[in-house]
């Protein structure tokens, strides 16, 4: 999706931030919003229209969707909390997964109406003249959407270079235009791209990662249990009688790409000739804004100056915090288990990093740990950042790292690693 921090930020951090959002009783027409920039927005609106009509629920659609202030950094917790109750009663197309299910919030979710997720795509006709050439060192160039699960999945790939793009549409385009040999991308973005560019054909394979599997659902704030029960009952009926499958045809994962256990062995093919024509809802790319909390900032490797200072006590405390809250997913030695590695070239390639220290700190403090995002204090997140810097080759000094300094650092993080 073209929502910055898509899924992880929306489905974990942001949902946790709307627990106190005011909710409007559904006694009149329910106001329905879609997520800004989502390539599945057309589908989401069609599903919502059919489900609510079948459920006997009058509905109006908010034309603009959730007001995300016009930026390309995604939806902040403040923006989502403000939209629910003020502008929207129901959000359709809300992404939910077992990894990032917002279970700590008071938001209410329907059952899923579309199982989708992240896939690995290559250009089907590699001899078309657009395929990316092999790099001199033999590494594969993989495109991903920065600050999204796409990036988290891609950085776990072996022997790869990374082309980080601003939007999911550009991530698909990187393969189509030969900037990358492969891409990890949100599958609805592939569908939307091919509806605009039916001349391109892609091979689709499953992306093997716990971050890959998602469901689109209806979401609302507290107090909407009765509405969500009606939606669930209607979804069950529409699933049984085939109406749901008819609505989502063309958006479902191809045969062979639905299993996350065989990333490169099961391959399906998708081409524009098999897709019904529709207008895709892809937002144009914008430059990321460095002031936005939660966004990992894409910068040139030469920008930013020296890394901020931190002291040894922070490293020691950060190591304890990491063991308690992070190691179960990222590994005892930061090697990555169900979540990406946090040290070495796979995390931040030396002299070629697109991740700023400030961006990493903002993302971590907004979205981590995944089961309870934002649970730590500013100082605890700062000490964790000191530990990450130390384990990636930076030396401790005498000055203490503060949250303000960590958050505003525009220095790329270039991994050591430490020996």
Uncertain residue ranges: 1-26, 69-73, 260-303
The end-to-end span amounts to: 38 Å
Per DSSP E runs of 2 or more residues, the count of β-strands stands at 11
Number of H/I helices: 13
* Fourth CATH level, the homologous superfamily of the domain at 8-116 and 214-251: Periplasmic binding protein-like II
Assembly level: single chain
Q: State the CATH topology of the domain at 8-116 and 214-251.
A: D-Maltodextrin-Binding Protein, domain 2
* Gross CATH architecture of the domain at 8-116 and 214-251: 3-Layer(aba) Sandwich
Gyration radius, in Å? 21 Å
Helix amount: 25-40%
Largest sheet: 11 strands, mixed
Helix and strand content put the structural class at alpha/beta
Mean of residue pLDDT values: 75
Written account of the structure:
Among the domains are: 147 residues, D-Maltodextrin-Binding Protein, domain 2, CATH 3.40.190; 97 residues, Orthogonal Bundle (Cytochrome Bc1 Complex, Chain D, domain 2), CATH 1.10.760.10. The N terminus is likely disordered. The two termini are 38 Å apart. Strands 1, 2, 3, 4, 5, 6, 7, 8, 9, 10 and 11 form an 11-stranded mixed beta sheet that branches. Helix 5 packs across helix 6 and helix 9 packs across helix 12. It is 31% helix and 15% strand. It has 419 residues and is α/β, with parallel strands linked by helices. It contains 13 helices and 11 strands. This is ABC-type amino acid transport substrate-binding protein. Keywords: Heme, Iron, Metal-binding, Signal. InterPro entries: Cyt_c-like_dom, Cyt_c-like_dom_sf, Cytochrome_c-type_DH, Solute-binding_3/MltF_N. Pfam families: Cytochrome_CBB3 (PF13442).
């Amino acid at each position: 999706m073209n929502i910055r921090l898509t899924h992880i930020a929306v489905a974990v951090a942001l949902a946790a931030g709307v627990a106190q959002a005011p909710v409007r009783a559904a006694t009149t027409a329910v106001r329905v919003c879609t997520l800004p920039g989502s390539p599945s927005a057309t589908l989401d609106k069609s599903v919502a229209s059919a489900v609510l009509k079948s459920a006997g629920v009058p509905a109006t659609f908010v034309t603009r969707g959730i007001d995300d202030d016009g930026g390309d950094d995604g939806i902040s917790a403040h923006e989502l909390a403000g939209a629910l109750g003020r502008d929207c009663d129901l959000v359709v197309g809300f992404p939910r997964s077992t990894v990032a299910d917002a279970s700590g919030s008071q938001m209410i979710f329907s059952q899923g109406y579309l199982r989708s997720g992240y896939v690995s795509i290559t250009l089907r006709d590699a001899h078309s003249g657009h395929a990316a050439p092999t790099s001199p060192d033999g590494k594969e160039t993989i495109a991903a959407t920065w600050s999204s699960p796409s990036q988290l999945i891609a950085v776990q790939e072996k022997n790869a270079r990374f082309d980080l793009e601003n939007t999911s549409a550009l991530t698909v385009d990187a393969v189509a235009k030969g900037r990358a040999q492969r891409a990890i991308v949100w599958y609805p973005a592939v569908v939307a791209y091919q509806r605009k560019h039916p001349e391109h054909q892609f091979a689709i394979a499953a992306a093997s990662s716990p971050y890959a599997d998602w469901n689109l659902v209806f979401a609302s704030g507290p107090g909407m249990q009765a509405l969500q029960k009606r939606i669930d009952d209607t979804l069950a009926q529409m699933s049984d009688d085939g109406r749901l499958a008819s609505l989502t045809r063309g958006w479902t994962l191809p045969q062979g790409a639905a299993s996350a256990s065989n990333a490169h062995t099961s391959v399906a093919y998708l081409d524009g000739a098999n897709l019904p024509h529709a207008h895709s809802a892809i937002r144009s790319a914008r430059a990321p804004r460095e002031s936005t909390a939660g966004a990992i900032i894409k910068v040139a490797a030469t920008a930013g100056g020296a890394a901020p200072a931190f002291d040894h006590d922070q490293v020691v405390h950060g190591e304890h915090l990491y063991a308690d809250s992070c190691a179960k997913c990222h590994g005892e030695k930061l090697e990555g288990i169900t979540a990406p590695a946090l040290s070495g070239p796979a995390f931040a390639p030396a002299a070629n990093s697109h991740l700023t220290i400030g961006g990493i700190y903002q993302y971590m403090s907004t979205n981590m740990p995944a089961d309870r995002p934002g649970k730590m204090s500013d100082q605890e997140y700062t000490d964790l950042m000191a530990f990450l810097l130390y384990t990636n080759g930076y030396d401790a000094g005498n000055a203490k790292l503060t949250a303000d300094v960590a958050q505003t650092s525009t220095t790329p993080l270039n991994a050591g690693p430490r020996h």
